[in-house]
Q: What sequence folds into this?
């Protein structure tokens, strides 16, 4: 499902090369739940943006769902992401002026999904938020906002879900509920889930754990 070959990201600072992700090879099978951990500055989020096609590598190749996307223009990449990739962020990234229902519906409408409204309703009912479908993000708790964000991430039935510290802004109770929901939806939809997390509890639920340090893979439980 995800194949990285010699994937690397570096920046030029004062004429010097600053590596953030050092060359790595990585294969993630379809349907897997992979957790990525490491200290702040280890390159976790940069690796996630590279694997998801949100950022271009300095070197190397990236293949998602059998497609070599490395050199794709942003216009083509945007359509691919909307159809096959879901994103969940620590800060929710909901559209402030849209209701919970409208936020979930938005990616499906972009994809011209004929049953977009029905799909959005089913998801909001599954996460217990249908009665709050007309509320704006500011009228929802952090846990509720993250549940809306997860529904939005899976509304187009993506093959891959990327999550960057999805429980980072939540208390322990809400974090457990949100993570359980994310894993449940991932399993129900048969998607691949890649999560960057500081949480030991989240990492323990994963099928595979990758530890980064200074932009390098220092441990991979897949061997």
A:
């Amino acid at each position: 499902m995800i194949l990285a070959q010699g994937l690397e990201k570096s920046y030029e600072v004062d004429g010097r090369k600053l590596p953030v992700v050092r060359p790595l090879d990585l294969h993630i099978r379809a349907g897997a739940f992979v957790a990525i951990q490491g200290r702040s500055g280890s390159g976790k989020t940069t690796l996630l943006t590279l694997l998801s096609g949100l950022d271009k590598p300095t070197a190397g190749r990236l293949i998602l769902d059998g497609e070599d996307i490395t050199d794709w223009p942003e216009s083509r990449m945007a359509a691919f992401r909307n159809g096959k990739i879901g994103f969940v962020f620590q800060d929710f990234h909901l559209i402030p002026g849209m209701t919970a229902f409208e936020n979930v519906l938005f990616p499906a409408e972009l994809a011209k999904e004929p049953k977009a409204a029905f799909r959005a309703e089913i998801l909001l009912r599954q996460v217990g938020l249908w009665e709050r479908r007309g509320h704006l993000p500011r009228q929802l708790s952090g846990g509720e906002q993250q549940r809306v964000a997860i529904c939005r991430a899976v509304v187009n039935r993506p093959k891959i879900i990327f999550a960057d510290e999805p429980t980072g802004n939540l208390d322990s109770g809400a974090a457990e509920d949100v993570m359980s929901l994310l894993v449940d939806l991932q399993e129900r939809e048969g998607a691949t889930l890649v999560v960057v997390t500081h949480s030991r509890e989240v990492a323990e639920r994963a099928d595979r754990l990758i530890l980064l340090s200074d932009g390098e893979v220092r441990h991979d439980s897949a061997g």
Remarks:
- The first strand starts at residue 2 and ends at 13.
- The mean pLDDT is 93.
- Residues 210 and 220 are 5 Å apart (CA to CA).
- Helices lie at 44-51, 74-84, 100-110, 116-126, 142-154, 172-189, 200-205.
